[in-house]
Each structure stands twice: as structure tokens, then as C-alpha cells.
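User: Second chain of the day. Same drill as before.
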Amino acid sequence: MTWRAPIRDIAFALNDIVGISGLVETGAFPGFDNETLSAVLDAGGKLAEDVLAPLNRAGDEIGAQYENGAVRTVPGFAQAYRAFADGGWNALSAPVEQGGQGLPRTLAIAVFEMMHGANMAFGLCPMLTQGAIEALVTHGTDRQKRLYLPRLISGEWSGTMNLTEPQAGSDLAALRTRAEPDGNGNYRITGQKIFITWGDHDMAENIVHLVLARLPGAPEGSKGISMFLASKRLVSEDGSLGVANALGPSRIEHKLGIHGSPTCTMIFDGAQGELVGAANHGLANMFTMMNAARLQVGVQGVAIAERAYQQALSYALDRRQGRSAWTGEYPARLFDHPDVRRMLMLMKAKTEAARAICLATAVAADLAQGSKDSAARERARLREELFTPIAKAWSTDVGVEVASLALQVHGGMGYIEETGAAQHYRDARIAPIYEGTNGIQAIDLAGRKLGPGNGEAMRELLADIGDMIAALRESRNDRLVAIAGRLDAAKTATAEATDWLVLRRGQADGLAGATAYLELSGLIAGGWLLAKGALAAARHLGTRGENAWWSGRLVLAHFFGEHVLSRTPGLLAAVTAGASDLSETGPEAFGA
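Assistant: Same format as last time:
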């Protein structure tokens, strides 16, 4: 089965659901218009299909290799990376003054979905470089911006973030890597970092590591962490490369999936580094990079779901088994069995919903920076902050669910590696774990993101959903009116859950309900955005041709309402159940 970049679905989401045209009106992106949007999506899809996708299988079967203290990438990856960099894809949304193209982040996110769908392991390398670029744009010194940003943006160099240590996973307050002043204005970094994605490779001539470490005498815990820049090769004042720095990989991990992406244990043995941002503000500074990465990881969930869905659909249209209850044909296509078609529609609907959530998050981020109106910027900032944990967690859960359903559609052949369906499931499974586990995203949503204004951001979202419900009912279209009913019930459940959680932020009862609340939030956000698409499709019916495609948008949104949004009362019960069942039991009750 040949994967195809979902350009039409992405363009529909951008134009008809998340309203990317509103970014043109801000004037913040002078080189961006509809023609640019179409050209970038087409060219990005071609690179993804022709260059990256053919390497996906080799990346899984061969994988990155560790030899003689260095990482050797999968054959073909280095050439693909050069095509990616030479095409300017790393520079899409980067600042023009540093060599970027100054296009919206939303467009870059859309392109990266295609890159991740083509080859998720490959896509991780430029994804992390994007985060390093954002961190240096926001927190770097003028010298750091001059020396490092142009080469990161061009793709000559790549970037990483080095956070995790053996004793400090999600709890970064426990990290021990230290940075000692060297007397020349720089620092010597010593310590071990683990699970460093693309920590070493042979695709770029230098790697810029952003590293969390402690200065001498720094406060204990997270308030004593600083961020440093340490490059694989030292950089002279004129930008030329010098000798190797005292850092490097000691091994790479053998993982369930994303085999083409080297996950390194990195040793810093007195490596030369320089401070980025203020001392002891490293964790806050690193969150600039992490928040960018969290949205990108959500996009990975969308991308792997799309790829798994395409393969499952192709198989269901080709494979014949049993008699169809619809057609009576024997043997019938798997596609013509109701339960198989149900699985495929669930896969498609959830993938489309997750894509819309991620793109809506990106649009909010662009508006938060680019809108001319301060009140609009603030509203967009609140929406971005609210949606980021939902985009990361709900979308990656969708990625795993859809990849699992794809195996189910394949039956026994899905469990056999030669079909390739199993790779998607193995690749997808990391996304709910890295860049902050989905449990942490849920706690963030139910805690910090509900804090400002006692849930103001969620209440503004619910108000927008209320407006959509009214518009659906006014349409007098039976399917749209039915969607309105499901959305209204979900809105009521979400409002009640929000009120309950606001009173219990930081308490055990609130923490116990956080994951259910994030799922509830993902369902209603996804349902709202699919409804926006359905309303737009209803307007296009009969006026733009291809009525079957537009009708399909209505069917997807209606199916999502009946099969997914209908679950919201149960999720409300889970949110408000409290922690008593958990707090009143010890290890013995769990069989320990």
C-alpha cells in the first residue's frame, strides 16, 4: 500500500475549520496568502511521498546503529535530510531576520504532519530543531542568535533538548547534571542524560544541545535549574567549526518503535557550554521548547493515525471474506461488512478531529503573537494554553487507538510484520509518553489551565460551542441538528465537570479526575471542530461539485456525535467520582 499525503483533508481543515485566512488579515505574515498555502502543501506533500515515505520501512527494519562512539543513521536518511534542508522546510516559520521565511506556524505544523506521516522517526530530528530555534529566539543572547540560529534554521545544524536523567524523568527537580564556571565566561558541563532523541547522528555537521544543569550553589529543586547550550563541535566567533566538544553518546536504546530515530544516552564530560537565559530559570526557558514540541507530538499522533487508516482502508477494499449483509456478495470486501466499516469510520472521524484540534492550537499561537488587537491576542493566548495539553494528549491517544484498530481491520495479517501495519502501532505508542506523559498533560489541563479566571479559557470555548450549536440548529439539516443535540449534551457535561474541578484544583479528587477531564475536553473540542467542518461542507454541497466528498464531512461529524460524543455523560461521572476508591486502598488491594 502506498501512503499519500492527505493534502485535501489538511487544506479543508485549514480553510474551512480553523480559519487560517484570519492570519492573513493580521498583517503579521506578509508573504502568506492562499496561493502560498496551496504551493507549500503541494510541495511538502511531494517531498513526503517521494523522499521520506520510501525510507520508513528501512528505518524500522535496519534502524539507527551505534558504532565506535558515534551514531550511524539508516541508509538514505542523510540524503533525505539534505533534501529537506535544501528545500527550506526547516525555515518555514522561522524569523526572516535569521534566514527564515516568516510564514505562520500553522502552515509549518500542517507540513510537519505530512513529514511525520511519511516517516515519523525521521521527522523527530527537524521537529526538535524547531523547538531549539524557538528557545533561542525567545531566550538566546544576540551572540547566540547570530552564531547558531541561521544554521539551525537552514538545517545545516540540528538541535536537541537534554532533560532526562536516570533518577529524573518526569520529575526534573531531581536532576544532578552540573555546570561549573570556567573563568572565561562559559561553563563546563558534567553529567549523564538519557532518552535523548537524535542526540547524535551523521546527517548534519553540528548538533546544538540545549541542556538543563545546576550551577554551584543553586537552590534545590526546580528553582535551581539553568539552561545551557553545548554544541557537538565548538563554534568560533566567525561561525566556523572547531574541535569536538567533550560530549557524546555512550549508547543508543533498543526500542519498541521509531527504530530509525537514535535515542541516545549522552555523556557530558566537562563539555564547554554557555548559559541561555537567566540563571536558575532554565526549566521555565526550556518550556518554550517543550510546548512547541508538545504540539508537534500531538501532530505525530494525527500523522500516524492517518497513515494507519490509509493502510487499513486499502486492505479492507482489497481483502475478501464472508458474505456482506448489505450486498449479499460472497466473498465480499471487508469494507462491505458493517463492523469493519464502523471501525474505519471511527478511525477517520477521530483522525480528522485530532487534526483540527492541533491546527486550531497552532492558529491560536499565531494569533497570540500576530494579532493587532491586544484583547484578541490575550484570547488567543488563553486558547493556545488550553488546547496545548489537549492537542498533545488526546491526539496521541487517538494515534494509538487508530493504529490498534488498523491491526484489527487487518486481522491476523496485521499481527504479522510483513504487512507493515504493526510498525504504525509500535511507532505510535511512544507519543503518549514523551514530551510530558499524557497523565501530566491531564494534570496540567485540570490544574494550571483552569486556574486563570476559575476556568475562563474553558468557559470561552464553551461559549463558542454554544454559538455553533445555535448555527447547526438554524441550518434545518437533519444531520446538523442531530449533531447540535449531541454537542449540547457534551457542553453541559463539560461545564459541570469544569465547575467541579475548579473547586478541587491541586487536590487528590481533582487529580484523580484529570485524565477523564482531558478526554472529555478532547471529545467536545473535536466534536465542535468537526461540526464546523460539517456546516461548511453543507454550504458547499451543490455549489462546488464532488458532492460525495462534501457529504462525507457531514456523515463523519454525525458519526462522531453518535458514537463518540455520546460517551460524555460517563466521562462526567469519571471526573466527579473523586479519589476515595483510590485513597482507601493500599498495595495489598492491588495484589502486591
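The longest helix spans residues 282-318.

User: Great, on to the next one.
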